[in-house]
Design goal:
heterodimer; A: 215 residues; alpha/beta; 6-stranded mixed β-sheet; 4-stranded antiparallel β-sheet; 10 strands; B: 299 residues; alpha+beta; Alpha-Beta Plaits; 2 domains; 10 helices
Chain lengths: 215, 299
């Protein structure tokens, strides 16, 4: 599903966020990316999401080299992956329903199908009865679950999550992890950048240190 | 095709929601655009009224040849045949003095004056149009007619129409310049409003890009917003012009009646109204487009 082949990412004025990184992740598998702040976890996810491009090396997702992806093709690539952002990036002037609807509107889904998909996604994360609530009316855990619902509503093959349990208490964090693992069990490939690897017992882990694989 | 239409429908609906989310601000913006558009539209209507004032007169230069008041009809007949044979004359129309008197009597302002006269004060006359209408040739022709027997007076009587036409041309040019400047103003107003919208919607734009929105998807609601501002401003301008016309109609008719003038303000025609709305919509859309190019950046 994902192949990093000697990937480096350098930001101006010469800061190496990732150096010569290689790894593979098969379909329907899960990989945790660990490391301290600034280790390169978010950069790795941004490369997979096509938000950043590698300075050298190649990033392949589903057999497609993202370095060779045309700018016009990038939006269509992004529609195939789900993203849970560290800061959630919810739209605070839209209801929970409208937030989850956004990816489907972007992809041009018909209204009826969109409605049923949004309701299913909200039910899946336990927010079925809060669809009219604005994000500000939701707790931190509910906001994170809403972000997950938005990430999975398009039924992506690959789900990227950047610190999905940050700022959550232990029980809420466990709840969020449970939901992510459920998606992985039904075949969604999961790439998670997290400090809290203990919440994902038995998961394969890639530890980064200053942009390199830790020994 | 259906998905494309759905996208457009959603974008238009979103633009409408954004426009109506701040009704007072939007109304003031529409009023500013409406005033900017109403000025040239009103000017066009005024010019049209002045053009009507000139009546059906054409700017074709003509020469009026007036006979001596004592000249016999036989002399006038002789002049008529000379005119008809003249190589430089395209057409010569004869106006018998009796017909002129009857026409003048039909003018309400002149009837009393003419009735007070003992005899018909008007001479026989000819209205001549020339083959060569250049001013020099017309002057030569007029000089020639002046030398003919029993010809009392020769006048290049299209001069005032030509002067009015020149004034109207100047008015039209000034109006176009004015309309261009105010059109630029409308683009600037829309530019600013859309810029503010882009800043307000920055988070949504960023999230949409991350979720796979194309640039067209992101731009479309803003373009519809610009279009709605333009068309809304056009409607406002139309209402202002119609309102002003109705308001001025009675006092203007009174003034025109006092001077026995055919001066009236006609409301904008359906085609002029459609043109106004189309131009306004296009200008709003252009303002939005420029603003997006400047402020939206690339994903």
């Amino acid at each position: 599903m994902i192949r990093f082949d000697r990937v480096s990412k350098r930001y101006p004025p010469g800061v190496d966020a990732l150096s010569n990184l290689s790894f593979d992740l098969d379909e329907a598998q899960m990989l945790l990316i660990g490391g301290h702040s600034g280790a390169g976890k978010s950069t790795l996810l941004k490369l997979v999401a096509g938000v950043e491009t590698a300075t050298s090396g190649s990033v392949l997702v589903g057999g497609q080299n993202l370095g060779g992806l045309a700018r016009a093709a990038l939006p269509y690539y992004r529609r195939r992956i789900g993203m849970v952002f560290q800061d959630q990036k919810l739209l605070f002037d839209r209801s929970a329903f409208e937030n989850v609807l956004l990816p489907l509107s972007i992809s041009g889904f018909p209204v009826r199908e969109s409605t049923s998909r949004v309701r299913a996604a909200l039910d899946k994360v336990g927010l079925g009865k809060r669809e009219k609530a604005l994000p500000i009316m939701l707790s931190g855990g509910e906001q994170q679950r809403l972000a997950i619902a938005r990430a999975v509503v398009g039924r992506p093959d690959l789900l990227l999550a950047d610190e999905p349990t940050a700022h959550l208490d232990q029980d809420t964090a466990a709840d969020v992890v449970r939901i992510l693992l459920e998606f992985n069990r039904v075949g969604v490939t999961l790439l998670v950048a997290t400090y809290a690897h203990e919440l994902f017992p038995g998961a394969r882990r890639l530890q980064l240190d200053h942009g390199r694989l830790a020994a | 095709m259906k998905a494309w239409l759905v996208h457009h429908g959603r974008s238009a609906s979103l633009a409408w929601r954004r426009l109506t989310a701040t009704p007072v601000n939007s109304l003031l913006s529409l009023l500013a655009i409406g005033i900017a558009l109403a000025l040239p539209a009103g000017g066009q209507m005024l010019l049209s009224g002045i053009r009507d004032l000139a009546g059906n007169s054409t700017a074709t230069p003509r020469i009026s040849v007036f006979m001596n008041i004592a000249a016999e009809r036989a002399v006038a007949d002789n002049i008529r045949s000379r005119l008809e044979r003249h190589a430089g004359v395209r057409q010569a129309g004869f106006l018998p003095r009796e017909e002129t008197l009857a026409r003048m009597k039909s003018s309400p302002g002149l009837r009393d004056v003419i009735d007070a006269l003992a005899a018909n004060p008007f001479p026989d006359a000819f209205v001549v149009s020339a083959r060569d209408e250049s001013p020099e040739s017309m002057e030569r022709l007029a000089d020639e007619f002046r030398k003919w027997p029993q010809v009392e007076h020769v006048q290049l009587d299209s001069a005032w129409v030509r002067r009015l036409d020149a004034l109207l041309k100047l008015g039209r040019t000034a109006l176009m310049l004015f309309a261009g400047l105010l059109g630029g103003g409308l683009i600037a107003i829309t530019f600013g409003i859309i810029r503010m919208q882009v800043l307000t919607q920055r988070a949504e734009i960023e999230v949409s890009r991350l979720l796979g929105a194309t640039e067209a998807f992101i731009r479309r609601p803003f373009l519809y917003h610009g279009l709605l501002l333009g068309v809304g401003g056009g409607v406002m301008a139309w209402l202002l012009v119609i309102g002003t016309t109705l308001w001025l109609r009675a006092p203007l008719a009174e003034l025109a009646g006092l001077y026995d003038l055919n001066l009236a303000l006609h409301p904008l025609s359906a085609s002029d109204s459609a043109l106004l709305l189309a131009c306004a919509g296009c200008l709003g859309w252009l303002g939005a487009l420029f603003s997006l190019r400047q402020n939206l950046g690339q994903g």
